[in-house]
Design goal:
about 425 residues; Cathepsin D, subunit A, domain 1; eight-stranded mixed beta sheet; 2 helices; globular; signal
Amino acid sequence: MRHSWRLRVAIPMLAALSLSISSYPRQVEATVQMAGEDILKTVEEPIDIGLVDQSDGRNLLPKPPHEDYVSGIPPSADTTVTIPFATPNQFPENGPPRVLMTINGVYCGDEGVMMDTGSTGITIGKGTWIDDFKGDWAQVVTNEKGWKYLSSSKKLYSGYWVPTELIFNGHSPAGERMNLMKAIAPVLVFDKFSICPGHTNAHGATCENPTSVKSGMLSGLYMGVGFGREQDGMITCTPDKNPLLNVVEVNGMPVERQRYHLGYIIRSSSLICGLTPTNTKDYTWTPLSKQPHATDPRDWAMPPVAISISNGRFRTGFILPDTGVTQMYLSSPDISTPAENYTVAFGVPDETATVGGYVLSVGMNGTATSSINGTAPRVVRATCTAGRVTGPGGGVFERVYVNTGSRLWNGYEAAFDAVGGRWGLKRMNNGGSRL
């Protein structure tokens, strides 16, 4: 019998593992769904709500933040791994980084898999899954249906979330391929692809007014590792789909909850998984808010930002640091029409820019220069939101938002603490000023 638990305490779910919840000293209410019926149960509230793999009793995920280390990483956290990018000269200047991976037991090749922080979860076409990864379509369709919408490109992928073993690879000094890290997470195997302007979460996997539709043996492969993306057309792209938040082995050894602090750092040349006091010591942090209706302790919203257009008032919104594109997407009610010959000041988390920030001067056709060397996007695509409801979910009135594009990483390194709910920046020594 298949059971799905919906607890009022936050319990992340990992597919392809046999899970239980342990250590309940106090009673709380929980709703258990069995055979399609909701049954109200009284269970004990957990001391430790890490997940347990029943095969060996290991805690796979850290418990929610405790007051003794919300302000930092605990000294016991010493497990970390650096995963070099396969194409170090591509990111951040000319596109997304790529990492070496083995998916479903099949090595993906030395060109690597594209890594995108603007989405969540690995996306693979049906044709690629069957032909390259030896997948069984009859097994695929037994899994949870899912979809992913990329609002910047208007692309809607529809398919199924398939639990999969994911290996992150590297090379030894002798050039031999080696396994650096293992995760277990569902991947979205899609058999339908649409260009779908105006899509929202309310439409689900269906595009009401597509401008292009393809189906069948589709090809494609990329990996999304972003957070806080559910409202922006990715309601099924929850933290259990993020490979970097479902790590079970590092350097061939099972992760231990006390020694592996869940989170990651993205640099211009590599990805670091597992936060330690040492690898985060030079970062400045901002706290994150929980996603609306979050049921997973790893489910954090995008970082806060303050944006000023042409020295006007700072307005508060959200920032998406996106490795997947070289352009910037900017929304504010203060953008003029046509959007040209203006300045934009960004401050994280607010106008004081205590965590980070920079100023762009935007000219004709969206071309830009930046106060921090190298961080100007290829082009700025600006939207005036004055008096309008736009953006994710049911829309936001006079939305304030920026997708930075990949060139942010010419000026900063960025870290996500999935336990403490924090996002941090580390300034690179490449000249220029914040604000």
